[in-house]
Predict the 3D structure of the following.
Amino acid sequence: MAPEQSRASSSWAHPARILVADDEPRLLTTLVTLLQGRHFEVTGANGGHEACALLANQSFDLALLDLNMPGVDGYAVMDQLVTQQPDCGVIVVSGESSFSSVSRALRRGALDYIRKPFDPEELLNTVENVLGKQSLIKAHDLIQTRLEKSEALHRYIVNSSPDIVFMLDKNGHICFINNKVESLLGYQPAELRGEHFSYILDDRDVTRGTFALQGPDISADNPRTLEVRLKTRGSRKATRHFEITAFPVDPQTWPQTEETQVGHTHQPARYYGIARDVTERKEAEAFINFQAYHDLLTRLPNRALFKDRLELAITQARRSEQKLAVMFLDLDRFKVVNDTLGHAMGDRLLQAVTHRLEKCLRRGDTLSRFGGDEFTLLLPSIHSPDDARGIAKKLIHALKAPFQLGNHEVFVGASIGISVFPDAGDTMDQLIQNADIAMYHVKARGKDGYRFFSDSMSIDTAHRLSLERDLRLALERAELRVYYQPQVCSRTNQVVGLEALVRWQHPERGLLYPGDFLPLAEETRLIAKLSEQVLDQACRDVGHWINNGHPKLRLAVNLSPIQVEHPRFVEALLERVAAHRFPPRNLEIEITENVIMNDLEQISRKLKELADTGIRIAIDDFGTGYSSLNYLHRLPIHTLKVDQSFVKAIRSGEDGACIVNAIIAMAHGLKLEIVAEGVETGDQLSYLTNLGCHQVQGFFYGPARPAADIDQLLGRDGLAFAHTA
Ligand code: C2E
Ligand code: MG
Ligand code: MG
């Protein structure tokens, strides 16, 4: 009994406190003395009444109770003990040995029973024994409470984690998953236990997710992290992004036996992991990414993304020896809308334009907003330039119908430059730049149309820059020349007019034609200065001839769209004409249909002002632009110039000839003068004459020539000689 004794004693923080109750004073003293001999802290109670009084004030670890006591008996004391000191053990010491009294005592919670008279040794053994058992129970209860607290703490820690915490068996079945899965994905932990983890993986990530844990060197210190999408409960589509960190459980840190298996699977947990919801971060990243590569107004790819795609497309086209096309599209008249209706309307217009343009494209084409009202388009694989031509026509057509912006109906056109890889350049920058150059050529010709880049157009960037510098110098050094092409009345062979055509006497490159430098002049806005010089020179030359025998001689000058659109166009022109004392009635300005359509209202005001002073207005290249003929009787137009292409068609007997017929008939109907351009042969001339078109201009009567030549020609009474072709 010695080891039990010591164990029992050592479990108590103090000597065991024992209450002894007996109504027999002699026996009570014996018991007290006996127990005190074993160093217990003993209190004697003379009968049940005193015992109850003591119990109310002191606490005891053990009570030795006589059953039979007068007044308050042992059972009554036990009843009080149960309510007041439930931890106090009871040994019954009694002369009663009937089965019923013993069982009654034990039922009330007595731990043992000693019959009087007792053997002191036996009594002490029983006391030690009961105290030992009690201390074990106490220790067990203490550990149980601690365990429960610790369990609750860990459960709290795991379930309050902001992340999903889980454990998987070696096959990937979920052994454990914390409550977080409910708030994040909507599943009850219980319904997931036993399921394979791919049950909640998005289908797109199943393969990646399944292989993720199979690396050889994954451990708690070197966990595997991967981003996957997890499905939310009940909907197949809604997924959230998670960053999973997982590693195999180290059997040494957590040795598992069959009993420590968790959950419903028959396999022990093999992997530990946490899954962090990174959806918001992902969405923010996606937005930032979108913002970096898209234009937020139109939601189109921006310049950076366009360049990226173009670079890729070039590599592919090169590898597969295919062509690709880059288009540079600039809206005509956008600025007018933006300036007059405001930026909000401008924005709406851009969105509406985008919408229409997108409808013309195929999958794989990239339309991007390059900036302002400029768009670029990549057609990554085309068979021939005709494919690009088709798309360009479609785009232009798509923008033809008016746009309804609030109460306003606005028309915008598009000028499109096209560069085809590899002919128009084999690098990204070249292709974009050349498409841009081609686009400017469209603008310079009155906008609303498309053109392919060609080498003759221009010249590489360095060349362009030097040309621009040269042109600035040319304006300072007066290198520009004005040549005059006669407009002849075929009935009289008399020169009735002179069209001023600019030439550039370049110091190194010789005589340059407008096609070589006008686009650049427009682009760089040097056109204004250039036009001033041309007009000044022409007013001087033609003014001189008018004053010297040719009072009716007409001067025709070409005006660029940029000039006409300038707010001070009318004033500036009239000032110049007045400065030279040039008679306005002898001046005819040539503009193209597209200039008119660009902004009909403004133009009509300006033209009326000019016409009021006597200046005549001619429509150049008539029939080639897009226009509703509606404007013809609303504007003060005097002359139509039939475009060369229709005159050329006369020779080849194509349909163009019919167009000439129609134009001439219409001009007659509207009482407009008509001048046919590009007349090169006698056949063309007689065809035109038969239709009643008598004013002609073309190589048949001679090209544009310097003033000195014209001086001689006019000296011979202004009779032009036909040059037989
Ligand atoms: P445009 O006004 O249609 O001028 C007629 C063009 O046709 C001129 O070319 C002229 O030389 C050419 N041409 C005349 N007769 C014939 C012919 O029988 N056959 C052929 N194949 N061509 C003929 P040019 O001088 O090269 O001018 C080209 C364009 O440049 C002009 O077309 C005009 O739009 C523009 N331009 C010329 N000078 C000026 C100017 O001072 N200011 C502005 N803004 N534009 C100008
Ligand atoms: Mg002209
Ligand atoms: Mg013309």
Q: What stands out?
A: The first strand starts at residue 17 and ends at 22. The domain at 7-140 is CATH 3.40.50.2300 (Rossmann fold). The longest helix spans residues 120-159.
